[in-house]
Design goal:
About 70% of the residues lie in helices and about 0% in strands. It has about 475 residues and is mostly helical. The relative contact order is 0.11.
């Protein structure tokens, strides 16, 4: 079920909210748990058993770690192997078998496995819980229904943000539910919905038309338009979903950590990853980078640790070589920044502009890798962006791919990617300021819902991860 669907907005969410607020406090978690299971089963009921098995495995794994502390290392390893085994089979099995057949000229038959939606997200949440128990950072959760609620809570179940157990454990037992939180949650949800429907989908239409063609059938300028369109599509698509998830959490009394902090204003790739998909980058930092030694080791080992983290980041995003190389692409530039100290350099406006332009080029070229269907296409697309593709067989001019509305959306996307409006205060009284803001929010909601009614099926990009 999509957040940006009439089924969710007009049916599921009102019913769940009504039941939640009519239920006594001690039973509200059960309402959310039942709603979360229904939410997941709505789209893929046959994969519900996999998520429930993950919950059971990690519940008993943590109980055994807590009870048999002398053997907790092996119990942890067994639980992690189980979690990653599910993830490997459903997400990477096809990829591995296909590459084995290709590399060795073999024809090994195998089942075409379909990946359950959200498995990467809920697996990482389950792992964070069992590792936190192993480390002694949190007490073991003896109520399986509470652990189940943590792992499959519907606002962030399908596409994050990845919520770590130690960040929300207290909120599962007791959370403050106020009218102000509900209002904030509704507004945050609407802002995320507008990002998705009005900006991401518009930019996606431009990118899809361009990336669907052979590289030699559009000009270098068109190639840049396609790359930039996808750059904005993925940001507003994913940050829009995160806004909706954070808003929904607030409606039910939960406070989820922010997942984006204006990543496109970054002046280095190091800074970019402090601002982009924060829940994933902090997860890898806490559960992979620091256990490997982090930056407390020799520089050569630190560089290896960074390489492994970004290799894992690429693999996490998908079972394609394009994702793996995308992860290593970012890892390479972060290692180079650590080596040269580029990310710490300070100077005048000239240095600041050059740092920002360098960072933009790195992540825009990286997004081409992320979007391309294969490495060959990505490489040819790079060449086109650099003006190295000859004999263009151009069927359509740039005007075919982008119209006036889409140009306006481009401008809005650029402005909203910067914190220009973040601290703006209207030069009028608070009363009228709130009226103006609320009117704007309601306008966004009406326009976004109208866009939903007029649009075709367009799922969130990160659903496939």
């Amino acid at each position: 079920m999509l957040f940006s669907s009439m089924t969710f907005i007009g049916l599921f969410l009102p019913i769940v909210c009504g039941l939640y607020w009519l239920t006594r406090h001690e039973y509200r978690n059960y309402v959310l748990l039942a709603a979360s299971i229904l939410f997941y089963a709505w789209g893929e009921p046959k994969y519900l058993a996999i998520m429930l098995t993950t919950i059971v495995v990690n519940y008993f794994g943590a109980l055994l770690i807590d009870k048999y502390k002398q053997h907790k290392k092996w119990i942890l390893i067994g639980t992690i192997v189980s979690d990653l085994g599910f993830l490997f089979y459903f997400k990477y099995f096809n990829f591995v078998m296909t590459n084995i057949n290709t590399a060795f000229g073999a024809d090994i038959p195998f089942l075409d496995v379909i990946m359950p939606i959200g498995i990467s997200f809920y697996t990482f949440q389950a792992l964070s819980y069992v590792v936190d128990v192993y480390r002694g950072d949190v007490a073991v959760q003896k109520h399986i229904d509470k652990l189940a609620l943590y792992i499959c809570l519907f606002p962030q179940l399908i596409a994050g943000p990845i919520v770590k157990y130690h960040d929300v454990k207290d909120q599962i037992d007791k959370r403050e539910e106020t009218f102000d939180k509900v209002v904030y949650g509704i507004k945050r949800f609407i802002i995320g919905l507008a990002k998705k429907m009005l900006i991401a989908n518009t930019m996606g239409a431009v990118a899809d038309k361009i990336f669907a063609l052979p590289v030699n059938e559009f000009s270098t300028l068109t190639a840049w338009v396609g790359a930039l369109a996808y750059t904005f599509q993925i940001f507003y698509d994913f940050s829009g979903y995160s806004d909706m998830a954070i808003g929904l959490g607030s409606i039910f009394g939960f406070k989820f950590l922010e997942n984006f902090n204006y990543p496109y204003i970054s002046k280095s790739i190091t800074e970019f990853w402090r601002r982009w998909h924060i829940s994933l980058s902090t997860w890898f930092k806490e559960y992979l980078y620091i256990p490997l030694g982090g930056n407390r080791v020799a520089k050569s080992r630190m560089y290896l640790n960074l390489f492994l983290v970004f290799l894992a980041t690429g693999i996490w995003h998908g079972a394609e070589w394009t994702f793996i190389i995308w992860g290593l692409w970012h890892g390479f530039f972060i290692i180079m920044e650590k080596w040269t100290g580029w990310h710490k350099k300070e100077g005048g406006i000239g240095l600041s502009v050059s740092q920002h332009l360098y960072t933009m080029l790195v992540f825009v070229f990286g997004w081409v890798l992320f979007r391309a269907d294969n490495i060959t296409y990505a490489w040819q697309y790079f060449k086109n962006m650099l003006g190295l593709v000859k004999n263009h067989n151009i069927t359509y001019t740039l005007g075919y791919y982008i119209d006036n509305i889409e140009i306006l959306t481009f401008a809005v996307a650029v402005l909203c990617a910067m914190p220009i409006f973040k601290n703006i205060t209207l030069p009028i009284t608070n009363k009228y300021k709130h009226i103006a803001i609320n009117t704007w929010i309601m306008t966004l909601f009406v326009v976004s819902v109208s866009a939903i009614a007029a649009s075709t099926y367009n799922p969130f990009i990160y659903f496939r991860f």
